[in-house]
Amino acid sequence: MALDAYETSPMEQVLKGLAGMCQHLSQKSANPWDGLYCELLHKYFENIVKARERGQFVATQSDSVQCEAVYAMDMVPFHISMVSCTLAAMLRKQESLLSTAKAFGLPPEVCSVHRLAAAVFLQRWAPPVDAIVWNNETCDNNAKSSELLTQICGVPGFYFDSPYYADERGVKYLEGELGDLFQFLGRVSGKPLRQERLQEVLRLSQQALELNREINELRAAVPYPANGRLGLQLFLVRWYWAGTENAIRFMELVRDELKRRVAAGGRPKERHRFLSQFLTPNHSWKLLDWMEREHGAYVVNETNFHHFGPIQWDFSQPVRTLARRCLAEPVAFLTYAPVERWVKAVREDVKTYKADGVIFWAHTGCRQANPTIRIVKETVQAEGVPCLVLDVDTNDPSFVSDDALKERIEGFTERLE
Which of 127, 316, 349, 412 is the most exposed place for a label (fewest CB within 10 A)? Predict the structure, then answer.
């Protein structure tokens, strides 16, 4: 069934809420990037809502389909997972959406990220889309859930295969898959890929990733110069806006402010430095604020969001360069790869960021990430770095209360002290 009409009020409420948050954060936040982050989130949602009246085509993407591919086709990207999770969290409708998914036949064993995405379209809360694009990276749910959305929405879909190894053979293979993807998007939009447009997008992407690298070097400073939310914000800005001036605008603001803070001596109230692994629950970002306020505990980096693989930028071969960019994205480079790579990355980040603890957000529905916890935990604990594993559902606040999580975190900080 094609979803040409949709219930407009949920997205309107989110846009209204984001507009109010932008105003509040621009006036009250101690971090100048918080207001801009909210502004960019509002703009991303607004682009999706207004695409039809602007005569633009909308293409959804799954987790490891880089938005540069969509921007290069001058289409509007719709990140299925993060838009659905943000919508549910802001409206506090996780329970009703998960109930919708259950009634449709999706059991609790399926990751809640993908159940929410299906429910958003089943409830007709998402504006119409023109195409759905997905691949096999990250998890098996990712490989299948978008196929379901093509049936719910009645629109064409394109699945492309990503290689397991990020060597030159894998790059060449993915280049062919991306070539087929661009042909598909060209048929949907009626406009073929322009090589010069892809080159422009990739140059902007390179700038954003270089700024991201600079920022993460600054985050290694002692005391820590930022807040615990920054890593999540950087990650989402990259997923929403990589290949655009908006990503550069955000990251330049962050970099320049962090440079100023590092020169001034950071935040002297720091007591604990944590690495964060996997995804902080979408409904519990305030836990990070509480950790800083009550315990001087800062998340100083997130390995699976910011530990990139190598990228060779060659703008004379833009599709091949995009393939390298896709395979280097941390979520793909670390989770769709041999576990030894993950272990090595965490060990490196513990040393680089001088972490005195590692927190694993063990999302109950993740069959890919959770089996790595014991391996990584035993490795870093053997080197004297304690670990805390928190059982959570990244989209279901009823799974565990924030008070229960606070109690576990407090106990962990007491052990460290």
Answer: 316
Cα 74 to Cα 55, 159, 182, 319, 384: the distances in Å are 11, 20, 12, 16, 50
Look at the domain 196-416 and name its fold: Rossmann fold (3.40.50)
Distance of CA 414 to the CA centre of its chain: 31
Domains 9-190 and 196-416 share a fold: yes
**CA 380 distance to own-chain centroid:** 25
Which backbone phi and psi does 162 adopt, to 5 degrees? -105, 135
Query: How confident is the model over 235-265, as pLDDT tens digits?
Result: 999 999 999 999 999 999 999 999 999 999 8
d(CA 242, CA 312): 17
**DSSP-derived secondary structure for 362-400:** EETT-TTTGGGHHHHHHHHHHTT--EEEEEE-TT-TTSS
Residue 10: closest CA among 101, 118, 111, 83: 83
Strand partners, 78: 60
Q: Are 380 and 269 in contact (CB under 8 A)?
A: no
pLDDT tens digit sequence for 351-410: 999 999 999 999 998 888 888 999 999 999 999 999 999 999 999 999 999 999 999 999
Q: Are 349 and 307 in contact (CB under 8 A)?
A: yes
Band (pLDDT 50/70/90 cuts) for residue 2 is: very low
Q: Which option is the CATH number for 9-190: 3.40.50.11890, 2.60.40.420, 3.40.430.10, 2.40.50.140?
A: 3.40.50.11890
Check if the beta carbon of residue 164 is closer than 8 Å to that of residue 170: yes
User: Distance between CA 154 and CA 51 in Å, rounded?
Assistant: 18
Contact 175/320 with Cβ under 8 angstroms?
yes
Query: Residue 392: beta bridge partners?
Result: 363
**For the chain, domain boundaries:** 9-190, 196-416
Residue partners of 401: CB distance under 8 A and separation at least 6? none
End-to-end CA gap in the chain: 58
For 196-260, the DSSP string reads: HHHHHHHHHHHHHHHHHHHHHHHTTSSS--S-TTHHHHHHHHHHHHTTSHHHHHHHHHHHHHHHH
* Torsion on CA atoms 405, 234, 146, 204, rounded to nearest 10: -170
